[in-house]
Design goal:
Seven copies of one chain form a homoheptamer. Helices cover 13% and strands 50% of the residues of chain A. Chain A contains two helices and five strands; from the N terminus they run αβββββα. The longest helix of chain A has 6 residues, at 8-13. Chains in contact: A-B, A-D, B-C, C-E, D-F, E-G, F-G.
């Protein structure tokens, strides 16, 4: 299940093109499709939605997210579904 | 829709001259036309408006914004329209 | 209106000698004439006034301001007048 | 019991493949199997669970966690069971 | 009035030996005679007084102040006199 | 009593294998046996206990602690005993 | 009175072996004898006391204190005596 993850950024690499959950330090949560990331963990999401629990608060579309505002990123579908 | 975004800063590059939404760590939100940015994500906006939800709180005009105060930047018109 | 701004610091360069509004992370706002700045966005203002909305709270005169306390800098007269 | 720990990261090395407790600055606690880490203490957990005391709040599955959000990491089973 | 200030640290240089007001991020304010500073804006003050508005809360004498705790430094007598 | 302490890290060196009190920025306090530390003041403790005043809140066993969460470290038995 | 202080760290150098007051960002105050410091302003104090105003809250003995938690250091006896 975790094949091929030797370094932390490997998980972001295999998540490109997939939907991910991003937990921010401000307690905000974003869900979107991971398009790009860099070593600062700055990321770009597509079809980004700001979530309140299971409800969509805002549709943000394409979004650039600063890495230093992120707590964790979870690409597993279990996290996104609930 | 996300053609040509390989690195996070690519999204800022293709957003030059367009209106963007900037979410700040202080919970403030700014909307303005992206004129310039650097690798620290310092940005300059024109016709900047400080927003409270959908209402304009202040017209700031040309504005220099420090990168370390930014949470996310969303150039999609969906975000700006609400 | 935004002629000549290719990099964020260009806006600070063309604002030297002019009155600017500085929004601080602490929610304080300062208005003063920009005399100098460096790459850390440390700045020196002259005739500095600490503002509460449109009221002057304190006259600070010449002031050195650390860059890491700044959220945004707006040299447009629209911001200062209202 | 503490054989072979000469540098702090040695403890993370010998914890690979084992369940660990991660205390975050936001007061959140995560439990999961350590798959990978780097010198910034960015880590990847598998079967990640967000905990409230002894109760599972959310199943997050595979999770990338930024090092600068971590207070401590405790691989001892005593911490996880108690 | 602002002759000779080309870079922000020039203001600190011409303030050596004079009384300055230092606004800290913690909302504390210190007034004292500037003896020394470095590029981190670490400073040493003599005859330092911790102020609550116009009242002296504590006499601190010689004081070393870390630069990263400072918001602004105002050497103008207007600021110190209130 | 303070023989041989010329640089701050010397105190951590002579505390290896001894019980220390660690005060965290989050107001948490940990007590444990110092096994290892590095220049970032990341440390590993054995037999770690999270304390509330003089009471043990949790037994954490072996624990990796990030240096940037630490306020002070006191190896003196007086601190641990109360 | 301030002879020989040309750089901020000079004040810490001439305070070695003397009692100093350390104001922390967390509002805690420590008093102790300065044994050692480094360029990060990490310091070691001996006979450290955590103070609440003029009362001793805890005796900490030998203490390693991280520089990034410090607001100011005042070696003047006036500060310590209140």
């Amino acid at each position: 299940m975790a094949n091929g993850i030797e370094r932390p950024l490997d998980l972001l690499n295999i998540s490109k093109g997939k939907e991910i959950l991003v937990q921010l330090k401000s307690e905000k949560q974003l869900v979107g499709t991971l398009l790009a990331f860099d070593i600062h963990i700055n990321i770009v999401l597509d079809n980004t939605k700001e979530m309140h629990g299971n409800e969509v608060k805002r549709n943000l579309g394409l979004t650039f997210l600063r890495g230093d505002t992120i707590v964790f990123i979870s690409p597993a579908s279990a996290a996104i579904k609930g």
